[in-house]
Amino acid sequence: MDDAVNQIPSAEVDGRLARLGRGLWPPRCLVCGERGAGGRDLCRACAGTLPWNRSACGRCAIPLPAPANLCGRCLRRPPALDAARAAFVYAAPLDRLLPRLKFHDDLAAGRLLAALMLDDPRRPAAAAATALIAVPLARARLRERGYDQARELARPLARALGLPLLDRALQRVRDTPPQSSLGALARRRNLRGAFAAGFAGAVPARVLLIDDVMTTGATLHAAAAALRRAGVARVEAWVCARVP
């Protein structure tokens, strides 16, 4: 009897449990508290206000007033990233959802945000990527929070895309002050030597770096530079939101 039970695929079991859970506890919008729609913790009204980043620079994801491949800054000085894509502009209601994930241990917000990133028709092409890597937290902040918000986004993204998530390939080797308290130049200086990369097996040819928010891009550029030094040929960023 036990053997028969064990033969049921885990994905099928997870699906049944998820349907049962939705029946017992209908989803509630994490933004306004109304009933969720489509099995998600987001109502139709709040979903209609999502600030999709439809027109953006292809190298730094900064929102642009009109469609263009690159912004002027990236044309003048190409960054370490080969490409960057942000699903949203950092504005309401993302400015409520992302802090819930980042600072308040709300992993349900992380699952919702990952699902929304997958809804983006302009998301990076999974077929062209080799692996996903989440930008790691500084060790002190990881101890404080007990989880890494970028990894909480990366895990469901990797499962949905059928790509490996490389947990140990990128490490923060130097704890740094929080970037939020620094200006653009200080952010870049703050992250010098902060990352190291290495691979136990073959070096992936094309990596998708996952993070929650891109502000100036200093963290992602520093991580991309470390991956390039480790032999990665192409590094792209895929983030949930871009600060304009």
What does this structure look like?
By secondary structure, this protein is α/β, with parallel strands linked by helices. It has two domains: 1-49, no CATH class; 52-242, Rossmann fold (3-Layer(aba) Sandwich), CATH 3.40.50. The chain is built from ten helices and six strands; from the N terminus they run ααααβααβααβαββαβ. The strands form two sheets. The protein has a four-stranded parallel β-sheet. Helix 10 (218-229) links the parallel strand 5 (206-214) and strand 6 (234-242). Helix 5 (94-103) crosses helix 6 (107-119) and helix 6 (107-119) packs across helix 8 (149-161). The longest helix has 15 residues, at 10-24. The chain is globular and about 50 Å long. The relative contact order is 0.15.
Main sheet, how many strands, which sense, barrel?
4 strands, parallel
Derived structural class? alpha/beta
CATH architecture of the largest domain: 3-Layer(aba) Sandwich
General form: globular
β-strand number: 6
Runs in which pLDDT lies below 50 for 5 or more consecutive residues are 1-11
CATH class of the largest domain, named: Alpha Beta
Q: Give the strand order, joined by hyphens, for the main sheet.
A: 1-6-5-2
CATH topology label of the largest domain: Rossmann fold
How much beta, percentage-wise? 5-15%
